[in-house]
Amino acid sequence: MKYNKVIALAIMLPAGVSVAATSQAYDVVPAGEPVVTGEPSRVGAPWNHRSTFNIPGTNTDVAFGGYIKLDAFYDFDYDQGDSTDPLALLNPANRTDGRTNFTAYESRLNFRTQTRTDYGTVSTYLEGHFLPDGKFNLRHAYGEFGGFLAGQSWTNFMHFLGTPRSLKLGGPIGYATGRPSQVRYTHRSGPNTFAVSLEEPSFALSPIGSAGVDTENRLPTLTARYQFSQTFGISALVSEFSTNEATSGVDERTTGYGVAAQLALPLGSATTFKANATVGSGLGSYLSYVPDAVAGMRTPDAYVDADGSLESVDSQAYGISLEHRWSADWSSAIGASRFSQDLPDEIAGFQAGLDRVQYSYANLIWDINDRLATGIEYQHSDIERVNGESDDAHRIQASVQFQF
After folding, report:
1. Is the separation of the CB atoms in 143 and 153 below 8 Å?
2. Which residues does UniProt assign to the signal peptide (predicted)?
3. How confident is the model over 268-316, as pLDDT tens digits?
4. Which is higher by pLDDT, 252 or 36?
5. β-bridge partners, 356
6. Can the peptide bond before residue 220 be classed as cis, meaning omega within 30 degrees of 0?
């Protein structure tokens, strides 16, 4: 199967090059301008730009893109995995006296189409990477028409404008993230953007005290977001969590909700102050984007209390950073973030659970050209458990990224 995919791609790429000189449904995108609606790269060139190729005889343009990224890590205290997971400190098995690791798993491949129709432009976007297991795993798969989006993409609850530039995948801990399947409508008016979505519902239930309890979601998650230019954004969500009486005999419901805001404030021509705040209840799986089974053990959205009631977990997250461009080619970022959750300390099983995690970093990045960047970053993680015990860890990450 792998060989078939490689052969198909080898056939398609020359075909795209051969038609590059033909008339195009759209002008070739100038270097530096965004051509996709997916995530802009936060490592390397400011936007992952590329030229488009027309499918002869159609009004459809296609574009291949992505990047190759090598990450090299040195862990002084705990092995934090291939994408810097501060919550790895919760597991004593991750302790180390010093460990070096190299990985290219973050590398991505994406494919975009735009088709001109009598009723407007139809766009599609497909992207995958190789985390966490070296296999090609889906990140985005969606289509857009008018203001509507349908498919799998970033949750409408999250923002990018206040997320700092970092070598770490996903940025600092405590910044809302996630890529659920969804239906979204976006309206833009000048510098203002309004968006609402119905998203795939799910929640991470703590395994403590919930043996045999089966979860279910009756209603989709509802989100709303407002953004002013690239300066300020605020979003909110509400979701229902429930258990399945038909399979486990437990019929309980509770509500998850939250508000997130980000700010990007220029301080002169070369420095930007960025800030993030996320507060609510039942947000653990948004702030620690891992499978529900893993999140349930580390940052659960809800738990079953001693009386058998389903309770959502309150949480708070904050982050600040400063970004400075030393020259056209060199930039740095320094920042810190903190996530805390209110697990019930009267339940013995939660004593070893996470109470709060603090993460800080500093980096230096060299944009060698529009397609090649390299950098080095220091990362520090510090956790405290419900029982008061704490651990910290230090990591050095060096990366090189080739965009195409």
Report:
1. no
2. 1-20
3. 999 999 999 999 999 998 887 777 788 889 999 999 988 888 999 999 9
4. 252
5. 340, 384
6. no
CA dist 244 and 290 (Å) reads 23
DSSP state of 37: S
H-type alpha helices, 136-259:
245-248
Asked if 284 contacts 300 with a C-beta cutoff of 8 angstroms, the reply is yes
pTM here? Answer: 0.85
Task: Write out the two tokens for 372.
Answer: 């090649």
Q: What is the rounded average pLDDT of the residues 203-214?
A: 86
Tokens matching residue 3: 């060989």
Single-letter residue type at 364: L
Q: Which residue has the tokens 């597991």?
A: 91
- By the 8 A CB rule, do 148 and 184 touch? yes
Structure tokens, 30:
């100038």
> Across the chain, what does the average pLDDT equal?
86
The letter for the amino acid at 176 is: A
Please state, as a whole number, how many other Cβ atoms lie within 10 Å of the Cβ of residue 192.
Answer: 11
pLDDT for the residue 213: 83
Give kind and range of the element (H or E) at residue 109.
Answer: strand 108-117
d(C-alpha 160, C-alpha 164), whole Å: 8
Provide the 8-state DSSP code for 313.
P
pLDDT at 359: 97
DSSP H helices in 142-263: 245-248
Is the pLDDT score of 33 beyond 70?
no
Nearest to 169 by CA among 272, 283, 67, 294: 67
Range from 6-10, 269-273, 381-385, 394-398 carrying the lowest mean pLDDT: 6-10
Main-chain dihedrals φ then ψ at residue 286, nearest 5 degrees = -80, -30
DSSP 340: E
Tell me, what's the pLDDT at 211? 81
d(CA 216, CA 222): 16
Residue among 370, 365, 390, 368 at smallest CA distance from 380? 390
Domains and CATH numbers, the chain: 2-403 (2.40.160.10)
- What pLDDT score was predicted for residue 329? 94
Cβ pair 311, 241 in contact under 8 A:
no
Backbone angles phi, psi at 89, to 5 degrees: -70, -15
